What we know:
Number of helices: 17
Helix content: 25-40%
Shape: elongated
Low-confidence stretches: 3-78, 176-184, 186-192, 207-215, 258-268
Number of strands: 17
Amino acid sequence: MDGLIRRNTIEAALRAAGALRAAGALGATMARAAARGGVAALVLAAASCAGDQTGTLTPVSVTVPPEAPRATGGRERGGTDADHAKLVASFGGEYRAPAALRLVSEVTDRLVKATERPDETYAVTLLDSPAINAFALPNGRLYVTRGLLALANDSSELAAVLAHEIAHVTLRHANARTEMALRSELVSKVVADVLKDPATGALLQDQSRFVLAKFSRAQEFEADQTGVRTLSRAGYDPFGAARFLTSLNRATALRAGSGIPTEPDLLATHPSTPERITQVTQAARRIGAPGLGAEERNLYLASIDGIAYGDNPGDGLVRGRRFVHPRLGVTFEAPDGFALENTARAVLGTTPEGHRRLLFDAVETHASQGLEEVLRATWTDAIEAGSVENRMINGFPAVTAASKGKDWFFRLAAIRVGTNTFRMIMAAKGATDPRDGFERWLASVAAVGPEEARRLRPARIQVVAAAAGDTAEALARRMATGDRPLDYFLVINGLERGAALRSGQSYKLIVE
Length: 512
């Protein structure tokens, strides 16, 4: 949670609290983060994978006059240095890790030499973001998050991601997509303005989103196939692509809290991760058997040993069920059974079955605005008559209330800690009042002192060698993840449940 927000509706709060899951594809968070940083133009140019959801559309047959102007594809652009700075800032800034940067740059150079455009050059930037993300711009800027580095387990897995992104650039996908978007927009405008048929023009515009989504999915498959071939030509294990996508799929499921990957929207611009795994595995098998290319596991793990893992302290940290935000000066602990997720705009929590959810965010207020006014102004449903109560919670002024929706029962609070005002919402599915859990949560709110704020450090990746007799369960007990340490250990190490560890082999731990 990195800033103040004005308003969240009941629907947005529920959607957010129930959406603790990734899109199952690299780049799923880029559009949101880039929009926050004011670099939407770069999102269009970047070869990333934001979702695009529409309804089913019936094709419309329209004849465009021959004299109508035609779109022309412009030269691909990746933005200015100022755009680059904004994009980097939107992902938490540049991450300084010399050994990791050197490895990513060396892998990139090796891959480029194996492409059909070996003369092209790329400038690599590491991003200080826990998101699992990588994307390339047509001007040769390549971005990799530390979250992605923490998930990969060898150089061939990293190379698979980079080869996919480089393929988007070498295949000129951004230019092709821009050209199609321009043509679609022009056809809609001609129909609406020239042929004086706004309704059909609007329908065509909606239909073009459907076409663009299919086009983007086709581009992703093409980039996957090209990337696997490049991976092999560069001497890396072509099966690294399938291994990384499998880890990504498992990380998505773990983050969702259900243990089961969710089905993607059929119109998502990225194909589903299982679908991609099948495709890249088949592509690798056409090249040869597993083990023919280099994995470079030890080199890779040595390069990422010590990198930060998870949230930046400045944006708030989740430690098990506790959330601490030193800049906003507040901390709380969620009730038993809740898994917390710190997002850009709020802290979200949910129980494994999803029947209870919570949301904690900061709200912007005026000096003369009372807490009851804040609560009513930021809540769109009716507040139960007689439920509003002015209170003091651990010395902080607060107002609490209740609200009943059609399918959910809500407990609400606005609480002022220092100069900041926060909103707390707990929802229970059905008619059950979540009051007991809400009161425990409310009572845990406290201020963060300067000394604690100074002591806060991000978690980090520690690479250790397994000793004789070590098991996954034993090493997982050393993990600082709060809940489900074994699941996290297995996912970040690409291991299946029940897998035996090899004595002397290196494995990753998440430590404080």
